[in-house]
Amino acid sequence: MTKEKLIDRVQHLINQGNTVVGTQKYAQFHGNYVDHGLQMGFRSASLSFIQNLYGEKHNYYKDFDERVKGDGLSETKSGLNILTSIKAEIENDWLLSIKELVTSEIFADFLEMSKHFLDLKYKDPAAVMIGSTLEEHLRQLCNKHSVDTTFEKNGDLVPKKANLLNADLVKAGAYGVLEQKNVTAWLDLRNRAAHGKYSEYTIEQVDLMYQGVLNFIMTTK
Fold this sequence. Notes:
Elements: H1 3-21, E1 25-27, E2 31-33, H2 36-54, H3 59-67, H4 73-91, H5 94-119, H6 123-144, E3 150-153, E4 156-159, H7 162-171, H8 177-194, H9 203-219
Antiparallel strand pairs: 1-2, 3-4
Helix pairs in contact: 1-2, 1-4, 2-3, 3-4, 5-6, 5-9, 6-7, 6-8, 6-9, 7-8, 8-9
């Protein structure tokens, strides 16, 4: 999901929360409260969004889950404050910066493991691991360059295949045609390994793939 779509989504949730606030009433011994059904809809939609964006272990998810449980007006406002903070992170690219840092560490670990496989002459798992790391890097580049990683099919959002992401990134100016051809070749080698066509490539080719992907990840950000 692109930055613009994330902002639209979180703004939709904020609007939903404001609608809930608009139903507020007051009752003696109960205080200010809101429509219970709308509040639960606001809670469920917001938690789903936060979970997909940050995961259940993040403080935003934990705080929202803890603070927005009943139908109190203060609970709705707490939820709105959390969503407003999330929107600010997205608008200022703080979310992307954090994800890039974490992703770079994960990439380093996977590439290190694939190099270990190569050193042990296990070319097949190394090829699959390198290719998977490459594909995830393409998806990260798509997020940074506002390229959709999904398309709609029969009413459902379907992830784009890596070769289509590769072509779309070239159109977006993320890198050039030469890099596109290299990525296509690396993805083809990964697919051969994933489909058991082990005799169609050599360990030398996988080693060149490793060096190329490593350089590609370091130079395209």
